[in-house]
Design goal:
This protein is an alpha+beta fold and 319 residues long. It contains 10 helices and 17 strands.
């Protein structure tokens, strides 16, 4: 009798374990990612990286001064293939006295896989109303679309700033009217994004290299666009340089800085700015961020022969 009871209990336990395993296996996949922000510190400043999402881009067709075969080979070395899932990043800087946002993502300008910046901002603990200043690297749609939603201002208390050469070029009804049909979209996007801020007296362009708030300054890096700008953030001897679109594809352009992209207004000038930025970053060892580096886009650059090696930041808990 005792043997039968033991056998019964063993069978019951085994069936229960099977049932539990079956239940676990039947659980549906969640299919969502963690909130799109990453936080760290730079001296006394708090830096929050924000993801606007990703977009698939046919980089073997878009990259120039190279061949599709070379691009495919470079991507394969990083276990990638074209189209490449490409990050769209922004950077939030809390200086203690100002909350500064560098770029705003694509908003509704590029489809449903982008436009996540406000959600990421809120998940990180901030609200759009708290942003004091917005600095734009350049006025391509994936950097400015998040300024507005349904034609209305998203950041009601922010002053928006960009290089005057950039705004004179893009925020121009005359340029829109004169543009070919295929080229009108960029001007239309800029007018839609900046129009409400200009009307509200909240757009203040600057000229070239300018100290914007204590610890944050603009540096002219024209080439990708006529007024493309990088931003230098410094606190307590630590330095972060936000490159904007000086580069687009880490798997290709760090090994070969000569590779350009079809979006460049002046590819030779863009290449020269990229080479200068790479060399300085590798020599000085400061932090780097860029709009299209894989999120979370923060790290260092090390010289490696004719090219460079990207060193992703080690994970840290913000203190």
């Amino acid at each position: 009798m005792t043997h039968r009871k033991t056998l019964y209990r063993t069978c019951t336990l085994f069936l229960a374990l099977l049932a539990g395993a079956s239940a676990l296996a039947a659980a549906p996949a969640v299919k969502t990612q963690a909130p799109g922000y990453y936080r760290t510190t730079l001296g006394d400043f708090e830096i929050t990286l924000l993801s606007d999402g990703t977009v698939d881009l046919p980089m073997n067709k878009l990259l120039t001064n190279t061949t599709a075969a070379k691009v495919d080979q470079a991507l394969a070395r990083s276990f990638l293939s074209s189209p490449v899932e490409t990050s769209d990043n922004a950077y939030l800087i809390n200086t203690g006295s100002k909350l500064v946002l560098v770029d705003t993502g694509a908003g509704a300008f590029f489809g449903p896989t982008l436009g996540k910046l406000v959600d990421a901002l809120k998940a990180s603990g901030y609200q759009p109303e708290q942003v004091d200043e917005i600095y734009i690297t350049h006025m391509h749609g994936d950097h400015i679309g998040g300024l507005v939603s349904n034609g209305k201002i998203v950041f009601p208390n922010a002053i928006v700033r960009a290089d005057r050469k950039e705004s004179d070029y893009w925020v121009s009804q005359a340029h829109l009217d004169a543009a070919k049909a295929d080229d009108k979209g960029g001007y239309q996007a800029a007018l839609a994004a900046f129009g409400p801020y200009i009307a509200a007296g909240k757009f203040k362009p600057f000229d070239g290299d300018t100290q914007l708030v204590p610890g944050v300054r603009s540096v002219a890096s024209h080439g990708h666009t006529v007024g493309h700008t990088t931003y230098v953030v410094e606190s307590k001897g630590q330095k972060l340089v936000l490159w904007g679109d000086l580069m687009h594809v880490a798997a290709v352009q760090f090994d070969d800085p000569s590779v350009t992209i079809a979006f460049d207004t002046d590819s030779k000038a863009a290449e020269a700015e990229r080479r200068k930025a790479y060399a300085e970053a590798a020599q000085q060892g400061y932090w780097i961020g860029a709009t299209h580096l894989p999120f979370p886009a923060l790290g260092h650059l090390r010289s490696n022969g004719a090219g460079y090696t990207w060193i992703q930041a080690n994970y840290t808990r913000a203190q």
